[in-house]
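go over this record:
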Amino acid sequence: STLPAVAEELLREIKKAFQETSQVPDDLLLGLKFIFGPSAVPALDLVDQRSVTRVRAPSGRILYQVLGSSGKLYTCYSSCHFCTCPAFGFSVLQKSESLLCKHILAVYLSQAMGACQELAVSEEQLTNILLAEEEEEG
């Protein structure tokens, strides 16, 4: 994984706490805000709104789609730590100001909290999702 060890550990702690109590304790929320900065609260909002969908093809390939607060659908790849939103390109890749955008953080949090919607698609549908993203970017 591409996250720093401290971020990985925090996400593990959140998952453990959530499994035990169905909530995230305040100290872990503070840690989230400390490590991920301004993306923490909006990411939690996206999780609360159940905006994260895990898209799985028969081959086992997985990607995530996150319905952003603007109503736009963003494709996230947790395997390589990438999101198609403009904030990721600017804040994470160009400026290195953030570890990740709120969409990828929402993916990690929804995994930890078991809050992902599930969508099974054919290989062709998955390919179409990927091609649609490329057309928008190009």
